[in-house]
Design a protein that fits this description.
alpha/beta; Rossmann fold; 35% helix; single chain; 176 residues; two-stranded parallel ribbon; six-stranded mixed sheet
């Protein structure tokens, strides 16, 4: 193999690996896009403040693009005293109780595991997250997907997150 061919092959492989996303998807059944959907809180396990809220904003747009028109965000709960509770499990439980009381069929939630720019010369964005669709009445997970993606040094964090989430949501088994 000629040296130039090796260099070109290495560059193509490196470019492909740098931009690829690792994803895992679980599908239980087809989901109705015309049903009432509740957007539940997304837990933030990353070190970046409000990463869950940022991911939720992107997710809302992507779900609307997929045809989910009846998507309503769960109201934020404020415990007595007005201070946030910083308890992701309690936030999700409160949102589920609200969604059950409102008669929603599906809830979409998840968690952010990574949401940062890597350290180093290039400072590439890196995102890792999981999404779930649950049956509001039973709490059973109907669909879940997890993924991680790193962008190039010139990429934005939100752009990298949007590309990853778009890939994950594209696997959502929707029927009209």
């Amino acid at each position: 193999m000629k040296p130039i061919t090796r260099i070109v092959s290495f560059c193509v492989l490196a470019a492909w690996l740098a931009g690829c996303a690792v994803t895992d998807v679980h599908r239980e059944e087809r989901l109705s896009a015309s049903a009432r959907w509740a957007q539940l809180p997304i837990a933030n396990y990353a070190e970046t403040p409000q990463a869950g809220e940022r991911a939720a904003a992107i997710l809302s747009t992507l779900l609307h693009q997929r045809g989910i028109d009846q998507l309503t965000a769960a109201p934020a709960t404020q415990p007595a005293g007005g201070l946030p509770q910083f308890d992701d499990a309690a936030d999700l439980a409160d949102a589920l109780n609200w969604a059950r009381g409102q008669g929603f069929q599906y809830g979409v939630t998840g968690s952010v595991e990574e949401w940062q720019y890597k350290t180093g010369l290039d400072g590439e964005p890196a995102v890792g997250l999981s999404l779930r669709v649950i049956d509001i009445q039973t709490g059973r997970t109907l669909w879940s997907a997890s993924g991680a993606k790193a962008g190039w040094g010139y990429s934005t964090l939100s752009g990298t997150a949007q590309k990853l989430m778009s890939t994950l949501v594209a696997d959502l088994p929707l029927q009209p």
